[in-house]
Amino acid sequence: MPMGDQALVIEFGDHIEPECNARVHSLTRALDSSTPTGVVAVIPTYRSLTIQYDANLIGYTDLTNQLRDIDVNSNAHEILTNRIVHLPTIYGLEFGPDLEFVARHSELSAEEVIRVHSATDYLVYMMGFTPGFPYLGGMSEEIATPRLETPRNSIPAGSVGIAESQTGVYPIDTPGGWRILGRTPLKLFDTSRERPSLIAAGDYVRFVPLSNKDEYQMIEEQIMKGEYKPTVTTE
Amino acid sequence: MSDPAFQIIDPGLFTTVQDLGRHTYQRYGVPVSGAMDAFALQAANLLVGNESAEACLEITVQGPTIHFLTDMVIAITGSDMSPQLDGEDIPRWEPLDVKQGTLLTFGQLRDGMRAYVAFKGGIDVPTVLDSRSTYTHGGFGGYRGRTLKSDDVLPVSSDSASVSRRKLPSGYTLPVYGNHHEIRVVLGPQDDLFTEDTVATFLTARFKISTESDRMGYKLVGPTIESSNSANIISDGNALGVIQIPGDGSPRILLSDRGTTGGYPKIATVITADISKLAQALPDHTLRFNRVSIEEAHDALEHQNSVLSALSRQGKPLSMTVSIGDTAYQVETPDGLPVTKTSLHSASISETTRRLSAVIDGKTFDFKVDVTQEA
User: Fold this and answer.
1) pLDDT at site A81
2) Over the stretch B192-206, which tens digit does the pLDDT of each residue have?
3) In terms of CA atoms, which chain B residue is nearest residue A41?
4) Domain limit, last residue, from A24, A51, A79
5) A199 is a domain residue
6) Angstrom distance (rounded) from CA A101 to CA A110
7) What is the ipTM of this complex?
8) Closest CB to B29 among A3, A52, A132
9) B311-330 pLDDT, tens digit each
């Protein structure tokens, strides 16, 4: 479908589910490995891919014809190799002011909330909202908790929060109403890095609980010295 | 190489460094940014002899006061803010010599909203994510990620451009922006979520630009536009000029600093050739949308770009290539020299027919070429 005279959007479905999302990422990767002339940028989202092009270099019909020829595997979801980005996270204490509330709301202990939250590898459906913000899917309903009634004015970068059945990480200091469970010392977005965003759409995110504040501070120091290398595995 | 080139004495209302923006990081949630009126920015650059995409100052409604620390060539395009050099009125849309120690000031806003100042060589702030554009909300790009302040000193690249300066084609009329704007749109991508009557209202009503408008986008005031089912769709990517309809029924046009994704239905998208008009539209101005096809939109863009390409052809050495597949081969004169304006006009070659040759995979091919010069 055209979106103006220099963009178009390809829809793969009308639901938020991993199979449909995998087809979006499959086409994204196909375009990354062989980009048609005139394609300026792509934005993969939950169930669609937005393609921006330069109309001085390619016309709408030419581009759509080229896109039709690209084979998007219908079981992309099973064959794609995905990166799993590990986020060391300290839960509770001053880093996670809402951990106790979420525990009470879920009728679980704080330890059980941490166990449930860190047991899943979360699919990054898309990025958006602010630079480096991942939209994660797949959180257990067991710990789903409504947003704060009054949003906080500032949430520190790295904060890990939940809102209803979504979970996410704030890449930069922003106001926000999510329930904050903890914090990762990792910088999700840093313009001075060659790859500014630690996470890309189509990756998975794994929260790795840190056992105490010392571990958090040790990683923080290593990051400051430029000695820390984030753990990324493939599934 | 770059040198301190000018100092901000008074920053004006909202002055930033912009180029044509950062496009490829949208998939990580990074907005494009860049000049709101990309046409005016490119024209300004070409006039001073730059490539079209160099970084310029974007100035808004109330211009800055600038002290030049060195001699240079500048050009001012876009809105008319009564520019003066040391108190003398100066022309817009043409290259100007300025001397070290002179003062550039702006006065009354006569027409439009945003002006661009290009400096020969281009403003030399560091590139961040492949662009020199300022993204103020993210605090990066441009000059220290922010609007300019008094006493900021900015560098300009001293690498001399190959072209000294350029002039607008004679007969080109400078844009007059006015206070009512007819804006062409391509419908969609979600116009099917609106009834025919609603789309008809959208295409005939006069909307007013709200004061809640900035580089992210413009909010419009007018008849309520309601989608036929729910107010939200699953979040999609956004393009420049997309018109979202949020739950309150007030259309919002997304511009340079727009979020990369959004969950409101998009009834239509402003064509690229008319983004410049929008960039020059002030709050309280009115606008009306007119539907066109993608082909008409591309024709309009080509028409707008023809001025830029006419500009960029000036002073460029003429070169001729033969393309076979994806490879371009340089065409030479019988003396083995590249084809230039001079060699084409040299006495050894007849008036209208040139004998030229190109070497392709080791074999020499001779061509007889009839040349007609484009106006």
Assistant:
1) 73
2) 999 999 999 999 999
3) B24
4) A79
5) yes
6) 9
7) 0.89
8) A132
9) 988 876 556 666 776 677 76
